[in-house]
Amino acid sequence: MGATEPKKRSRRRFILGGLGITGALIVGWGFMPPRQRLHMANPLPAKEGEVMLNGWIRIAQDGRVTLAMPQCEMGQGVFTALPMLAAEELDVPLAMVRIEQAPIDKIFGNMAVLTDGLPFHPDGAGTLKETARWLTGKAARELGLMITGGSSSVKDMWIPMREAGAAARAMLMSAAAKQWGVPASECHTENGAVIHSSGRKALYSQLAAKAVDSAPTQLRLKHPNEFKLIGTSAPRRDSMEKVNGQAVFGLDARPAGLLYAAVRMAPAIGGTIQNVDKDAVKSMPGVLSVVDFTGAFSGMAGLAVVARSYWQAKQAAAALPITWNDGPNAKLTTEAVFEELARRIDGESGFMYHQVGTPDAARVVKRITAEYKAPFLAHATMEPMNCTAQFKDGKLVLWAPTQVPSIAVSTAATVAQIDTANVTLHVTYIGGGFGRRLEVDMIAQAVRIAMQTAGAPVQVIWSREDDTTHDVYRPAALARFSAALDGDGKVVAYDNKLASGAITHQVLARTFGLIGAGPDKTTAEGAFDMPYEFAHQSIAHVTVPTPVPIGYWRSVGHSHNAFFKESFIDELAHETGKDPVEFRLSLLQRHPRHAAVLDAAVAKAGKLTAGRAHGVALHHSFGSIVAQVAEVSVEGKEIRVHRVTCAIDCGVAVNPNIIAQQMESGIVFGLSAALFGEVTIKDGKVQQQNFHDYPVLRMDQTPEVETIIVKSAEPPEGVGEPGTPPIAPAVANAVFKLTGKRLRSLPLRLA
After folding, report:
1. Domain range for 20
2. What phi and psi, each to the nearest 5 degrees, are found at residue 143?
3. Farthest CA pair distance, the chain
4. Is the CB of residue 370 less than 8 Å from the CB of residue 744?
5. Residues 357 and 394 placed together within one structural domain of the fold
6. Degrees (nearest 5) of the Cα angle 600, 669, 579?
């Protein structure tokens, strides 16, 4: 090569070179490991008589351990399961561990909930997938969003909480070894004490102050064979408080001088206030003021009446003369939404989430097609939406049942136009979240109202009607299927095309002011990532924007896509003349864990009572594999579910009893939706109001549920949501056996 001839540059070198200094920094950042999650950026001072060993753990003079808790408790059992992780590694009895709400700090940010949102098939591998997960995890660590959702609490905390316990244990052992002048390797820990091989013993409380200066060079987590607490059904730590009334939910906040606010919000989606006579209610008993909170949060228009009691506020709010402008969606209907879904699914190819194989048209002798629908759904949390706020002297205090503490604080600070350092948040118990309290509309609303109450705290409460008509709903969805069979009755091609709104696009816009674009995994999850081994398969989704506010609903896209997919799989089994269970097993040759879960559920379901039928469904969501067998009867037009056998492989079972409870909860929640759940829209307004027209499963309608936990050595996966998706298709498949009718729309109704 001549001296003047330019060197050839590889495409990779060219791209990186074009990025310049910024690109080099990004690449360099990408190769660096994520920051540690053990120590806070700004450590809190230890409380009197306590020693802080890391950002998660403090030890008191009496030996009790205080554990920072970044997750919220909404019935899923994290106030028990997560302390078990720390107690296991720290070698203390669970009873010695108390929890305290974690401060807002990035070490408590949920990394798993973001990495799990990447649209990769679980069977796939390769550099792109691993790089994307690595970079997303690092970005999540930098964002530090404290989120309880996505069935990710135990999964995300599995390592950090164990490391916090193990690090504290190592520090205590090091301190004891130094005090005794012996090698640390001659010491072990047990029941809150360090013990030397000679029998010498020191309690953690005696060593904590000296342990602060210890810096163990090696951190060793216990091998599963060493677990004493993890894997046991330790009793729920929140049960007693909830039974005896000591538990503090959002509605139980009672700061001194508390006032109450009831709201009136635009009845039409996107509606606004045309005019209002605020003076008309100011003479009513207890009424103090009328506050317009329009603009406090994206798309929010309405007023609140502030009074000395909630009843006074509610009565006055109902009497408030308001003329509404129904806005651009005044003619919106449910029928129009589904017509648009059908039009777009007919005319657009959508985003291809998964495609493998090339179908051989010459082999096709029969084609099976089907269309499925799922409606908008409300969350219907048992505790009404509420938030208590006090704005005084430039500082803001909140008492809120929220799933997103860090986002709640930043939103509140933005509304109040103060620094986040001036916001104090008390996260209460949550009387049902199901994804609804991932939203911060109530936070923004309460802050705007509190700014008008002259420093007095105010508790904002939505009625059931407010909640049902102003929810962020599970999206309406449409699914089209086409399968090709050859002359031997074998499925040689499987195609699925879906259409719905994209939840993540809406959430990014209304919560962060960002433009949502690109694929949203929640739209196609449960469809594109199925385990069934069809040689040719293609799964695509068409995003259809909707003015209807949509949000994360328990199990999100899995909730309807499991119904679509598992019902159609049953259709294929019927068309090919095979037993539904055997048909599924034939498609799981390379998925032994899935096959084992299905086998476990079917084996335990046992024999049928006369006049009933078993319906089967298998679904993989949030990292866990769940199979359900529903025992169903039909009397006239009534579908009755008597028993559900549920098997789950969720990796290591931290607390089997809590897992069983969550399967029961998920099944009841999903069955409510399967049999009754439907939100309809007319003239831009949600028609359902309360439990009389948006019913949930009653106790006398609730089936017996038996849960089998399949043993696994894999790390823990999700539990809070995976029990919900399989129940609707399992019931629908049983109904088909009983009646010969294939129900392809939710809720399940026999005409």
Report:
1. 1-32
2. -70, -40
3. 95
4. yes
5. no
6. 35
Residue whose pair of structure tokens reads 């007693």 in the numeric block: 240
Per-residue pLDDT of 373-426, as tens digits, reads 999 999 999 999 999 999 999 999 999 999 999 999 999 999 999 999 999 999
Q: What is the pTM of this model?
A: 0.95
Q: Where are the alpha helices (DSSP H) in 56-152?
A: 78-90, 112-115, 127-143
| Same domain as 511, residue 597 | yes
For the chain, helix (H) and strand (E) counts, in that order, are 20, 27
Q: Is residue 532 a contact partner of residue 569, using CB atoms and an 8 Å limit?
A: yes
- State the DSSP H helix or E strand holding residue 500, giving kind and residue range, or none if neither: strand 491-500
**Tokens 């070198």, residue?**
13
DSSP at 679: B
| Domain-ending residue, one of 461, 489, 519 | 461
Beta bridge partners of 305: 262, 290
Cα 312 to Cα 24: distance, rounded to the nearest angstrom? 62
| Domain final residue, candidates 417, 437, 461 | 461
Q: Which two tokens stand for residue 83?
A: 């302390």
Residues of 303-320 as b/e, b for ≥16 C-beta within 10 angstroms? bbbbbeebebbbbbbeeb
Q: Is 373 exposed, middle or buried (0-12, 13-18, 19+ CB in 10 A)?
A: middle
Give, in order, the Cα–Cα distances in Å from 678 to each of 206, 558, 695, 747.
60, 17, 9, 7
- Neighbour-count burial of 690, counting CB atoms closer than 10 A to its CB (0-12 exposed, 13-18 middle, 19+ buried): middle
Q: What angle do CA 577, 581, 587 make, to 5 degrees?
A: 85
Kindly report, residue by residue over 128-179, the tens digit of the pLDDT. Answer: 999 999 999 999 999 999 999 999 999 999 999 999 999 999 999 999 999 9
What residues form DSSP beta bridges with 704? 643
| CATH code assigned at 574 | 3.30.365.10
> Any idea of the CA torsion for 97, 664, 242, 314, to the nearest 10 degrees?
130
Distance in angstroms (rounded) separating the CA atoms of residues 161 and 455: 39
Return all residues near 631 (Cβ < 8 A) that are at least 6 apart: 605, 608, 609, 612, 613, 614, 641, 642, 643, 644, 645, 703, 734
